[in-house]
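Lab notebook, page 48
Experiment: co-folding of the full assembly
Goal: obtain a model of how the components sit together before planning crosslinking
Operator: M.T.
Materials (sequences as entered):
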Amino acid sequence: MSAPVLRLSGFGKQFGSLRVFSDVDLDVMPGDRIAILGASGSGKSTLLRCINVLETPSEGRLELDGELVGQPSRAGDMRFSERELCALRQRVGMVFQQFNLFPHMTVAGNVAEGLKTVRSVKSQKALERAVAELQRVGLADKADTYPSRLSGGQKQRVAIARALAMDPEILLFDEPTSALDPALVGEVLGVIEQLANEGRTMLLVTHEIGFAYHFATRILYLAEGGIYESGTPDEVLKNPKRPLTQQFLAEHRRFQF
Amino acid sequence: MYEWDFSPVLAEGGFLLVGFRNTLVLTATALSGGLVVGLLLAFARLSHRRWLKVPAGIVIEVFRTTPPLVQLFWFYFGLPIVLSIEMTPFLAASLTFMIQSGAFFAEIFRAGIVSIERGQWEAANAIGMTYNQCMRRVILPQAVKRMFPSMMERSIELMKTTTLVATVSYADLLFQANELAQKTFRPLEVFTVVALIYFVSISFISFIASRMERRFAKSGEFTP
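Observation: model returned without errors.
Model output:
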């Protein structure tokens, strides 16, 4: 039995007096693919953003490969130095709902940027690597184009390549298909599926329940400020045990054909 | 009927040219200094550290809200008394316009920087960049393009504001013009020529600026 790559314990986030979630305990094993579901406002994106500390968690611990990230302050919350954050984020990549590509760089420039600036890889080497990553997402021919010329689906695939270029141990996807035309969702999910087949460790916040069922090794359903129900896709999605999960899934099935 | 006669003015053209050169030197000094001061003030005001943020805010507001002529007098007459130092008209004028234009540039820079979407910061952070790396590689390159038109506008404004140094007898274009007007008794002609010199040189700068703006736009990477 291997050790968890990521462990959250007593993890929580509060915005002022609003408690988004609390007491989240989670072990992510290598190769785990965890889909995080929940109604809007249930804190799924916030939870994901706390994992690479784009949002600072208010309480609890975050361990990567058994090592605690950040220092506990006297007030009990965690403090993160810039150096720790940069190290953490290189190991935990993220793909955003709105892609957030850098508009002033070419597609290859976007993918190579982290290597060049953060890892000080030589420009030529970084670009070669960028093209290789673009090949993986099927966009090597777009290397020299600017992002404004791409479709939403292509942009998101570039964003995935940009995250992959840093060789992250864990990939976080924050509703990667929510900003896409329905016709473009498939190509992005296809790339994510391919990464799943490679055995990558991933956490995915999504509304695509069908995809979550096929993709995930484990489902977390978030409600009432925490993990409300969790288990295998069959357990949670086929036989939900708790009322809010049942209601959520029923709502989703309403217009199925 | 007034009889226009430019010949005495043109005969002393070299006199005006000296003034024009001095105006250019002062503008260039104040502009390059002002850009540096502006960038520093902008970063200080954007900082989370109160001891940087608050003083920067005060300097910016004081220099934006007081008349430049008063600032110039303060630097030229006030500062030597307070610090008991020697002050030349050029030094006083350079300091005044550096800080004064710096205060305006700072607000232009700051507005440009905060206008960049949060997602850009997050994406840069998410691949492990530090604050400085984000700023240098992702935020500033995009912000500068947005700031460029207002920066040009402010620089032109600066060139015209430097005429105030005539009041502390720095031999800029306007000061020389005054002298020449008294010498030749042809103030209308003299000041018409001065206006023309400003018109031509500023139009030229504007032309270059709009060319550059178009080149920025053509590089095509803007996403609305």
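Interpretation: Chain B has a mean pLDDT of 91.
Next step: discuss with group before ordering constructs.
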